[in-house]
Amino acid sequence: PCLTRLCSPLAEKTGKVLGEFCRCYREQYGVALFNSVRYEIEGNGGPQAQLLHRKVPLEDHVIYSGNIFQYIEENKKWRNRFCVVPHNYGLVLYENKLAYERELPPRVLINSAGYKVLTSVDQYLELVNSSLPGVTPKSGHSPILKCPTDFPLILWHPYARHYYFCVMTGKEQEKWRAVFQDCVRHCNNGISEDSKVEAPAFTDAIRMYRQSKEQYGTWDMLCGNETQVLSNLVMEELLPELRTAIGPRLKGKAQERQRTWIQISDAVYRMVYEQTKAQYDAAMAKCEEERPQMESTIRTDMDQIITSKEHLASKIRAFVLPKAEICVRNHVQPYISSILEALMTPTSQGFAEVREVFFKEVTDMNMNIVNEGGLEKLVEYMEKLSHLAFHPVKMQSCYEKMDQLKLEGLQQRFDVSSTSVFKQRAQIHMRQQMDDAVYTFETLLHQELGKLQGKDDLCKSIQRILERVLKKYDYDSSTVRKKFFREALLQITIPFLLKKLAPTCKGELAKFQELIFEDFASFILVENTYEEVVLQSVMKDIMQAVKEAAVQRKHNLYRDSMVLHNSDPNLHLLGEGIPIDWGEEYSGQPEAESAADKRRRAKQVVSVIQDDEGVLPYEVGAEELLQPGSPASQEPKELEEPDPGALPSSPDGVEAIREALAKESLGDGVEAEERLTNGTDATRESEAAVPHATPAAPGAPAPGAETPSPSAGTACHQPSDKETGEEVASPGGQCSPPQPTSTTESGEGVQTEF
C-alpha cells in the first residue's frame, strides 16, 4: 500500500530528473555534432594501427553453456538449469538442455550490466545489510540466503533483483566466475563507440548533470546502454527518499524486510526504466529530426563558428588560466607521476600477459601441427584460435593483473569513488588487442596457405607470421596504453580541478554568454569551453609525464617519435576481404547445414568441465549434499521446513534425490515443452520488448538490434531490456503499484533482466 501511494510522486520525480537531463542532452548534442563534422573535415587522426581490426564480429559461437543450480525465490528451491552464454554475452537459462536444443523459450534472460559477481555468501550478506541501514538479522537467526554447497555465484545489483547460483566444485566456480565477469564487463560497455555524435553527447550530458548536483569524479554506475545508465542516474536520487519513506514501514523479521526491500527496489527500478526509455527516446528523436538543419548550418558556417569559439576561449582563458595553473601546480602536478605509476604497472603487466598468451597459443598450435600434421589439424586449431579473445578462462590471467590497481591515498585526494572504471576499460582494451592480433595472424596465414608445400613450410610460415604480428602488437599496445594513461589521468584530475575552481570561477561564467552569436549558440557552450581551458591547463603536464615514462622503457612503451609507416602497405587491404571461415573453407564438406544443425554444432569457446567417470556432475553432487559435514546434512530440519530464508525441502534418500535431479536435468520432453510454452512466449515478448544492444566487434553492445527468431542460430534468445509480466502502469495512464514479476515453476512468466 505504501508503494501505491508513492507511485505518483516517484513518477513525478523521475520525470523531473529526466527533464533536466534531456535539456543537458539537447545542448550537448549540438556541440558533439559540431565536433564530429569538424573532425571529419580536419581529420586529426593519431598513429595508424599496425594490426587489423575485425570488421565483421564473430557471431557463430557460444561463449559457454552448462548446467548450474539456480535458487528460485518464489518457491525457495534450488533448480538445475541449463545456462547458455551466446556471443552477445547475455545469460540465458533454460529448463534443461533438451529445451535449449528444441529451441523452446528460456526461463530467464539476464543482461548483467551493473551487476557484481560474488563468490561468497558473506560478501553478499554484507552488501544486503548495508542496503537497508538498521535492518540486520541478529546472530543465530537464518540469513536471507543459504547455499547448499561451498561454491556460490551471486549476481548483485544495487537496484535490480539479485540472482543466486551454485556449483559443486571450486574448479567449476572459477570457470563460471570468469564467464559471468566477462558478461558483466561486456554488458557494462553498452554505449557504442561507433556513434560519433550520440555517444559523446550522452556521456557529456551525464557528466554535466551530475556536476550540476555537485557530484564530481568517476561514477560506478555508468553501466549498460543509455536507458540503463539513465535509470541508474534516476535511482541514485530516488533511492534515499524511497528508503526513508518505506524502510520504517516494512514488517516481519529482518531477513523478510530485506527480501521485501530488494523486491520493492527492483519494482521501482523497472517502473523508472520504462518511463526513462520513453522520455529519452523522445529526446533523441527530436535531436535526430533537427540534425540535418544543424549539420547544414555547421558546414556552411564552419569557419565563423571556429573563429567565434576561439574568441570565447581566449576570454575565458584570460580569466581562468592563472587560477587553474596555480591549482595544478599546488594540488595536481606533484601527484601525476604517482598516479601514472599506479596505473602503468598493472596495465603493462596485463598487456604483456596478452602477448604471452597469444604467443603460447600459436606456438602450441605449431608444435601440435608438427607432431600430428596436416591441414585438417590446422583448421581445427585455427577455429579455436580465432575465438581466443572471447575465452574468459584463458583471458582471465590477463584481466586479473588489473586487480592489483590501487590508488590508495590518491583515491581519496582526487575523489575517485572506485578504480573499477579504469580496470574495466583496460580489460576491454586487452580483449580488443588480443582479437586484433589473432585476426591479423589468421589473415596473413590464410594468404600464405596457397603458396606452401608440405608441413615444414607451414610451420616455418606460422613462426615467421607470429614474429611479424608480435612486432605489430608491441607497437599497437604501446599506442593504446599511452592513450589509456592520458585519458585515465584526465578522468582523475579534471573533475578534481573543476571542483576546486568552482567557488571562484563557475559563478562568473554567465557573463561570457554574450560573446556567442545567437546563430551559433547551439554549437558553442560556455561550460564546455571553460572545461576545455581547464583541460589545457593540465594537459601539458600529463603529456610530459607519459612521454618521460616511455623514455624509461620500464613498461615497454614506444617513444612518440617512433612511428611505423606502411610496414605492410597491402595488409589493410587484406582486412577488407570476406571474413575467413576455416571450418567451411577447408573442411571438405560443401553440403549446407540446416539452421538446427548449426545451432547444435555451434562452436563453444570454453569447454565444459567433464567428470572423470563421465557421470553428470549434479548426480554426484546429490550424494555429496548428504555427506557428513555438508550444509545439507547438518541442518535436515531446515531442509524440510519451508521457513523464510531456509533451504528448500528435499526428497528423502540418495535414490530419490538422484531421480529428482535426473528428471530435472533431463526432463520429459512433452512435459517440458508444455511447461515452457504454458505462459508468456519469451521469443515473442523479447521481440516486442526494448531491443537489446548487439555487440559492435567486440566492444559495447549498441542499442537498436532486433531479437532474432529461434531459427537464427545459437543466440536466438538475446537478453531483452524489458521484463515481461505485469505492466507497471495500467491502461489509461493510471498508475498502479508496480509488483515484482518473476519466474514461476509453472512457466507462468518469463523473467527478463535489464
Explained architecture:
The structure is a single chain. Among the domains are: 1-35 and 191-300, no CATH class; 62-188, Pleckstrin-homology domain (PH domain)/Phosphotyrosine-binding domain (PTB) (PH-domain like, Roll), CATH 2.30.29.30; 336-496 and 564-575. Helices cover 56% and strands 6% of the residues. The longest helix is centred in the middle third of the chain and has 71 residues, at 302-372. With 754 residues, the protein is α+β, with helices and mostly antiparallel strands. It contains 23 helices and 11 strands. It has helices spanning 2-42, 97-101, 121-131, 170-188, 198-212, 226-246, 254-300, 302-372, 375-385, 392-399, 409-413, 420-448, 454-505, 526-552, 571-574, 582-586, 595-601, 617-624, 631-634, 636-640, 654-666, 669-677, 682-688; strands at residues 61-72, 77-86, 91-94, 108-110, 116-118, 152-156, 163-166, 603-604, 694-695, 701-702, 751-752. Strand 1 (61-72) and strand 2 (77-86) form a beta hairpin. The strands form 2 sheets. Strands 1, 2, 3, 4, 5, 6, 7, 8 and 11 form a 9-stranded mixed beta sheet that branches. A two-stranded antiparallel sheet has the order 9-10.
